[in-house]
């Protein structure tokens, strides 16, 4: 009798595992997105001036951290060209104009602009 129960229980466990393997990926894939994921997808590889942190400007020599701080705190922007309306030196304007095609603007997302995370997002080298 104990063997029969053990065989039945192992069959139930095996069937449960198989169902989990078959059904779980399809059920989970559609539900694993949030507002931050959607914003990142909208960027299309560009830096979103309304929703990025200062740290994203490290790839542009001369922009990080001073000019990046001005850009991040100067928003929100309606278009990429609005960043040129900030109080900038000629050198800073030239730096921004040089990389203007690498920037984009999307509507503000509270999940990416909450608190001081845009200035100090807690990522250190």
SSE topology sketch:
Blueprint (H helix, E strand, L loop, with lengths): L1 H28 L5 H9 L3 E2 L17 H9 L15 H9 L4 E2 L5 H4 L12
Parallel strand pairs: 1-2
Short description:
The protein is 47% helix and 3% strand.
Q: Which structural class do the helices and strands define?
A: mainly alpha
> Quick one: overall form?
rod-shaped
The portion of residues assigned to helices is 40-55%
Q: What's the CATH superfamily of the largest domain, by name?
A: Photosystem II 12 kDa extrinsic protein
Secondary-structure element string: HHEHHEH
Please identify, by name, the CATH architecture of the largest domain: Orthogonal Bundle
User: Widest sheet: strand order?
Assistant: 1-2
What is the beta-strand fraction? under 5%
- Which spans of ≥5 residues are poorly predicted at pLDDT below 50? none
| Total E-strand runs | 2
N→C terminal distance: 62 Å
């Amino acid at each position: 009798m104990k063997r029969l129960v053990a065989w039945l229980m192992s069959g139930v466990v095996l069937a449960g595992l198989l169902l989990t393997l078959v059904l779980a990926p399809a059920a989970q894939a559609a539900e694993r997105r949030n507002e931050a994921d959607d914003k990142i997808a909208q960027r299309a590889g560009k830096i979103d001036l309304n929703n990025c942190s200062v740290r994203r400007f490290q790839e542009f020599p001369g922009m990080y951290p001073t000019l990046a701080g001005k850009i991040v705190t100067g928003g929100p922007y309606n278009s990429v060209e609005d960043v040129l309306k900030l109080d900038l030196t000629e050198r800073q304007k030239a730096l921004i104009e040089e990389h203007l095609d690498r920037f984009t603007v999307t509507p503000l997302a509270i999940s990416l602009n909450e608190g001081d995370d845009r200035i100090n997002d807690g990522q250190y080298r």
